[in-house]
Amino acid sequence: xxxxxxxxxxxxxxxxxxEVWSQETTSPPNVLFICIDDLRPELGCYGNSxxxxxxxxxxxxQSHLFTNHFVTVPTCGASxxxxxxxxxxRTKTAVSNDAIRKLIAEKPEEDRPETFIAKLRRDGYxxxxxxxxxxxxxxxxxxxxxPVGTEWEMPDSWDEMLFDAGKWGTGWNAFFGYADGSxxxxxxxxxxxxxxxxxxxxxYPDGLTTELAVKKLQEFATRDExxxxxxxxxxxxxxxxxxKKYWDMYDRTDIxxxxxxxxxxxxxxASLHNNGEFNQYQLGDESATLEQPVSDEYARKLKHGxxxxxxxxxxxxxxxxxxxxxxxxxxxxxVVVWGDHGWHLGDDRIxxxxxxxxxxxxxxxxxxxxxxxxxxxxxxxSTVDIYPTLMELCKMKASKSVDGSSxxxxxxxxxxxWRNTAYSYFRQGITVRTDQYRLTKYFREEQPITELYNHxxxxxxxxxxxxxxxxxxxxxxxVWEEGNTGLFKEP
Length: 491
Prior knowledge:
Elements: H1 2-25, E1 30-36, H2 54-61, E2 64-70, H3 76-85, H4 99-105, H5 116-122, E3 126-131, E4 160-162, H6 171-175, E5 194-195, H7 205-220, E6 227-233, E7 240-241, H8 244-247, H9 296-326, E8 333-339, E9 344-345, E10 351-352, H10 358-361, E11 365-368, E12 375-382, H11 386-393, H12 408-412, E13 422-426, E14 429-433, E15 437-442, E16 450-454, H13 470-481
Parallel strand pairs: 1-6, 1-8, 2-12, 3-4, 3-6, 5-7
Antiparallel strand pairs: 2-11, 8-11, 9-10, 13-14, 14-15, 15-16
Helix pairs in contact: 7-9
C-alpha cells in the first residue's frame, strides 16, 4: 500500500515537472497577417456560390470564421489605424486616410499609440511587412506622383518593410498599375476601371508581393525567433485588374445584380456619395451617379472584374499558405485574413466604400490558430477587437488601453458573454450594429439625421424605419451613446 502511495506521488510530481517544462519550452506562435484591400465578405465560405475562392475557403474551413465583422471607418487609412491601435476614432484626423501618418509617424514616440506590431517587436518578435499593411502601400510617406519617400509611416513597428514595385517604379504607381507598366496618375486618369490582360500573375503587383512573402517564409524557417509577417494585397481595390485566366473562371451571366438597386427609402443622399473615386477612371464604359444606376450589363462587367480580382488574390494567398505548410511553419503560426472594409458593388447606386451602410462596413475576417478545427462565429465583432485578440493568443497584454476586447473566449466558448455591438464612424455620422439592428445618427443639417434598419426583416438596409419606431430608436440610442467618442459635433 505504501509503495502505491509513493508511486502516485512520484507520478504527480513528474506530471507537474512535465507541465512546467512544456510551458517554458513552448515557442511563442508566429503570426501571418494577410490584409486584403476592399474585400467585403464575398467568398465561397461566406455563402457566395459564384465567387471562385478555393484557397481562402479551405483556410476558412480550418479557422474561426467571423460572419459579422465590421470595420471602424470605411476608408483605407483610418480603418487600418483602428486595426493597428485597437482604438475608435476620437478626432477628425482619425477618420482620414492620413490617420497613421498624422497620429503615429508625426507624433513624438511618447505620444504615439503603440501598434500591436510594435508591441510584438518590443517583446521579441521579428516583424516584416510586405505591401500595404498601413495606408502607404510600401510603408513610406510620399504622394501619388512624388518620388519614393524616405520616412516610415510606422517607425516603431518594422524590422523590415519590403515591396517590389517592379516595372511601375514606385509603390503608388504599382497600386494603380496596369499590366503594361502604366498607372492611373501617369495617364491623368484616362484609364478604365478594369483590365484583363493575358499575362502571368507577376505582371501585376500582387504577384510580386507573393514572391517576396514566399522568400521571406523560407528565411524564417532557418531562424529561431518568432516572427510577425504582414502581407498586404492590393486587389480587389480599383482598378479591377487581374490576369485574364481569372476572368475566364466566370460566366458573366451567373453574376447576380444587387438586392439594393435604389437609394434606401427615407434616406437623405448626404448619407451616400456620388462615386467620386470610381469616376476617376475616366475611360469607364459609363459614369456612376445617384440619379440612376449603371446599366445591368455594365454592373455585371464590373462585378466580374471584382470577382476576378478576388480569384487572383485567392491564388496568391494559396501560394503563401502552401509555402507556410511546406516549411512546417503552419504548426505554430496564427494566420489572420482581414479585409480593410467592404465595398458597394452598385448597391444603393454606389460603386465604392465611404458610407455607414453594411455594404461598406462589413468585411472578411478569419483567424486560424495552430489548434483550431474550423468554426463559424455569428457574433457582432469589430476590427478593434483584433489587437487584444492577438495579444492574448501570443500570451501578451496590450501596453496601453484599447477600445476592443479579446475574442479568445468567443472562439473557445459558444456561450461566452459578449457585447455583440460594433461601432463605425464616417460622413459626420456614428453607427452601431447590434445582432438585429443598425442605428445611425448624423451630425448635420440634412434630414433625417437618424436611420434605423432591421436586419431580420431588411438585411440589405433598403428602408430606414426610424420614424416608424421612435421607442426602439430611443432604446438603441443608449447603446449608440456608448460608442460616441465625441468625434462629431452638432451643426
